Amino acid sequence: MELVRTATDAGIATVTLDSPANRNALSALLMRELLDALGAALTDTEVRAVVISHTGPVFCSGADLKETAEARETGRIPAELLADVLAAIWEFPKPVLARIAGPARAGGLGLIAAADIAVCTRDATFAFSEVRLGVIPAVISATVLPRLAPRAAAEFYLTGDVFDGTRAAEIGLVTAAVEADGLDAAVAAYAGALVRGGPLALAGTKQLLRRPAADTIRADLADLSARSAGYFRSAEGREGVAAFREKRPASWVPVTHDTSAR
């Protein structure tokens, strides 16, 4: 039985965690299937962005603790494979959007933080529950800590307390928290905006968001100026400017999406 399903429509690949029986826990099989799904979306030229969603009431309950206990003595524990998943999402050249309609715990928060944009319901709940199990949120810190306000990170890492979607948005874990009946519309609005960006420009902008600053302001500006000039000279850049001047959608915009300004 597949634990991860993919459906593609109008440039958006929706990758769905589909293991509700164990609350979409991060088993080795689910994570391998998730990596496969991301790999397929990466090479599919029709896919412009990825939405990570879920079936069942829980987005992701974190590590599969039963599997972890069984594998501890004999094999690679799922927490180690999680590093591959987080890196794949964080480094993915196409935008990744997380749709969270229910609770997330521990490793599930790492998935959310790895996404470029995350939208949850206001009543969704979250917790870094690791300390209450006698372990630490080590692997997910690579994606979580760059997102969270430092005081909030200390509060929730150390206490393991549960917080809701509104608080998740306040501290930077998610982009937006909305009412449950508005979640799909909010996700669709972000997805519709993403596919209007040039594919190469989106990839370059993701690199911009991740790049370390240069040692000096002049070195920083020299690098950024070179990047800017390269994109303006590119075929994609020329097409985008021409489309703007001619008041038409750029050639890369899927025709089934509304191309009006967001």
UniProtKB/TrEMBL annotation:
EC number(s) on file: 4.2.1.18
Family the entry assigns: Belongs to the enoyl-CoA hydratase/isomerase family.
Enzyme class: lyase
GO MF: methylglutaconyl-CoA hydratase activity
Keyword Lyase: yes
Keyword Lyase: yes
Classification via InterPro entries: ClpP/crotonase-like_dom_sf, Enoyl-CoA_hydra/iso, Enoyl-CoA_hydra_C, Enoyl-CoA_Hydratase/Isomerase
Domain of life of the native organism: Bacteria
Keywords, ordered alphabetically: Lyase
Name recorded for this polypeptide: Methylglutaconyl-CoA hydratase
